[in-house]
Amino acid sequence: MVEHTNLITFVFLAIQLLRGQHTKYAKVHHFQSKHIQLMTNSLEYGQMDGEEMGTRAFALDFKVSQHPFWYIPENK
Predict the structure, then answer these.
(1) Domain ranges of the chain
(2) Contact 22, 10 (CB under 8 A)
(3) CB 58 within 8 Å of CB 40
(4) I need a labelling partner for 8 at 20 to 30 A (CA). Which of 1, 16, 51, 69 fits?
(5) CA-wise closest residue to 34 among 66, 1, 68, 63
């Protein structure tokens, strides 16, 4: 999660992410858990799937789960 930032800072942090150095900066917050809940206390503008939701308070849940995955290449 990155606090308010401009394009130059965003690009700089993206480069640091590739180097594994992004968590050393004050605007970057690194959380690690199987379940994170994020809530806003004030009304915020929202958009979901390209549709405007207006301003409202939000409560978001992030959960980590495992799902089996396999890749079957096509025979050429």
Answers:
(1) 1-30, 32-64
(2) no
(3) yes
(4) 51
(5) 63
Question: From residue 18, how far is each of 11, 14, 55, 57 by CA, in Å?
Answer: 11, 6, 34, 33
Q: Which two tokens stand for residue 48?
A: 């979901």
| DSSP per-residue letters across 9-71 | HHHHHHHHHHHT-GGGSTTB-----SEEEEE-SS-EEEEETTEEEEEE--EEEEE--------
Report residue 66 as tokens: 């495992």
What does the pLDDT look like over 16-74, one tens digit per residue? 889 888 878 777 777 788 898 989 999 988 888 888 888 999 998 989 888 888 877 78
Cα 75 to Cα 52: distance, rounded to the nearest angstrom:
44
